[in-house]
Design brief:
By secondary structure, the chain is of the alpha/beta class. The protein contains 14 helices and 10 strands. The strands form 2 sheets. A 6-stranded parallel sheet has the order 7-6-5-8-9-10, sandwiched between helices. Helix 6 links the parallel strand 3 and strand 4. The chain is globular.
Length: 334
């Protein structure tokens, strides 16, 4: 079965919402090995990508990164601007922050962002960080949260309502060191269900690995399983999630599950103020609070999640971010 990465899912998501809500045309950009490609061949490739662009009108939403070299992205962006198009850079990940070994690339990445007319960043924390490190783009829009398009028919919502139990769902690969925190969960009293393959042949009490599931299947399985959706990782990952948006978080909410997030999470304030679940400081606190939760408390979380999830299931955060970016560029009051 073809595994679709989270990065690919999120870029497809933005493209689909932009096409539906703003009648956008998609430009096909693929990741490929450009090593050894001649300037002439690369220019011809890029000319083909932008061939449908109208000259002197319109706006291009440039999703970053393309996972091609930064120089490649910058060259394509400048070509789009040569068509006298406005450019909004929609930042999904900053590779200089994702991988500690790439931190030296940060000045070059910010220089590239500074070419944009407006930029959409995941969180206010990310906006502040980029400003402090040289970002000069006038219009900076905060995304706040990922959407996750998922349709639960009204007649199915009650019949498939998540059940209260002590299951910790995790939509990540526990075979990876950064997500191997199951060792710190009290699996004598809790169950963990991880939505990944068992590449390391793990055999741990109360740890279930489902194998890879397509997104829609996983969302339905999350709802059927009930319990909680956990956002967690090693220290570096949690630090980065303080600046970024977690696709896991939106997946859990779209499925209807109350969530558990670290206090450092960029969406912790949204979770707390909307009563979407627990904001915690440690896995010890997860162990204690999940075991102490009551069915009545769980029902309150479910009601809050079901209300808030309508925004995520219908792409409202992406629509809002793009709308605000367009107004920032074209409304002369800005």
């Amino acid at each position: 079965m073809l595994h679709i990465s989270t990065a690919d899912k999120s870029q497809r998501l933005v493209a689909n919402i932009a096409k539906r809500a703003f009648n956008a045309n998609e430009l096909d950009v693929f990741q490929y090995d450009s090593t050894g490609e001649s300037d002439e061949a690369q220019s011809a490739r890029m000319d083909g990508i932008v061939a449908s662009l109208p000259f002197g009108e319109g706006t291009t939403i440039f999703q970053a990164p393309t996972w091609n070299p930064l120089e490649w992205d910058e060259k394509l962006l400048k070509l789009i601007q040569a068509y006298n198009n406005k450019v909004i850079i929609f930042v999904h990940d900053i590779l200089a922050l994702v991988y500690e070994s790439n931190r030296y690339q940060l000045p070059a990445q910010i220089k590239y962002y500074n070419l944009a007319d407006a930029i959409i960043v995941p969180t206010q924390g990310m906006a502040d960080f980029l400003r402090a490190n040289g970002l000069t783009v006038k219009h900076v829009i905060v995304q706040e949260m990922w959407d996750c398009l998922h349709d639960i028919p009204a007649d199915m919502q009650n019949r498939t309502k998540p059940k209260f139990n002590h299951t910790i769902n995790f939509a990540g690969d526990v075979n990876l060191e950064k997500f191997a925190f199951y060792q710190d969960l009290d699996l004598d009293h809790l169950k963990m269900k991880a939505y990944c393959d068992n590449k390391n042949n793990l055999n741990v009490h109360n740890l279930e690995l489902t194998g890879y599931l397509p997104e829609e299947t996983m969302l339905n399985e999350l709802r059927r399983t009930g319990g909680f959706g956990l956002v967690w990782g090693d220290e570096h990952w949690r630090q980065y999630m303080g600046l970024n948006c977690s696709y896991k978080l939106s997946s859990y909410l779209a499925a209807g599950l109350p969530v558990i997030v670290p206090r450092t999470c960029g969406q912790a304030d949204i979770v707390a103020k909307n009563n979407l679940g627990m904001v915690v400081d440690s896995l010890d606190e997860v162990n204690e609070r999940v075991q102490a939760a009551t069915p009545e408390q769980y029902e309150q979380w479910l009601a809050s999640v079901e209300s808030f999830a309508q925004l995520i299931r219908h792409g409202m955060f992406t629509r809002k971010a793009i709308t605000k970016a367009l107004f920032a560029i074209y409304d002369q009051r800005n």
